[in-house]
Specification:
Elements (H helix, E strand, L loop, with lengths): L2 E6 L14 E2 L2 E2 H11 L5 E5 L3 H9 L19 H13 L7 E4 L11 H11 L5 E7 L8 E3 L5 E3 L19 E11 H5 L8 E6 L10 H13 L1
Parallel strand pairs: 1-4, 1-5, 6-10
Antiparallel strand pairs: 2-3, 5-9, 6-9, 7-8
Length: 230
């Protein structure tokens, strides 16, 4: 099976200016995902999808391929994952290169546990109906314990299809997961159908403590501390 990694790294970032090139312990944030992909023996190509010449040059210096610049239309704050993933697929296939599996690695999850690519691909291979594999962690705050405010100022349980879900013993709460940004592994056919997930998503469960998703400067500071503690 031919496998390609797509690492999205657009130039715009409101939460942290130039986030993808900001240094984390002396190394650009983007470099962590590039090196993670390059270490995998089953990945055939490591691609950075960016709209920036600066980021493209930086990515190339760390060993990634940057065969195209992503159109600005697909690089805005409201751009969705499917757009840049499909753009990459169309780029390759119009040039006669087809990949069976597309791996999405976000630069905002730089400190992934080792072996996620191999584990996720194995899950996909072992489940013929799986359209994708997504990294998840057990949630800490269960929605059955959540409340919402009514117009009169009182509160009501957020989940309304159970009788007093907020009083259900912890041991009887259904297992629920929160998606992390560590990795998504997607079949080509899923992208062709118009989705990055499809309708049969299998989980790759990691520990909640292993989950690092950088959306703010405080997240960045936490990642630096976590990296230093390793």
């Amino acid at each position: 099976m031919k496998i390609v990694t797509i690492i999205p790294a657009r130039s715009g970032s409101k939460s942290i200016p130039k986030k993808n090139v900001q240094l984390l312990d002396g190394k650009p944030l983007l470099a962590y995902s590039i090196e993670y992909s390059l270490k995998s023996k089953i990945v055939g190509s490591t691609i950075v999808s960016t709209d920036s010449e600066e980021i493209a040059n930086l990515a190339a210096s760390f060993g990634a391929d940057v065969p195209f610049l992503r159109p600005s239309l697909l690089s805005g704050d409201t751009s969705v994952d499917y757009e840049f993933m499909r753009h990459a697929l169309d780029y390759f296939e119009t040039r006669g290169e087809n990949f069976d599996i597309y791996i999405l690695l976000r630069p905002t999850s730089p400190l992934r546990p080792s072996g996620l690519i191999e584990e996720a691909v194995e899950i996909l291979k072992n489940n013929i109906y799986a359209t994708s594999v997504r990294c998840v962690a057990n949630i800490k705050e269960h929605p059955y314990r959540a409340w919402k405010e009514k117009e009169d100022g009182s509160i009501i349980g957020f989940v309304n299809n159970q009788v007093e879900p907020y009083n259900i013993p912890r041991q009887k709460l259904p297992s629920l997961f929160f998606q992390t940004g560590d990795i998504e592994v997607i079949r080509r056919d899923t992208l062709i159908s118009g989705s990055v997930s499809g309708d049969c998503v299998f989980p790759l469960v990691i520990k909640h403590d292993d989950m690092i998703d950088i959306d703010s400067q405080s997240d960045f500071d936490a990642a630096e501390k976590s990296n230093a503690d390793r």
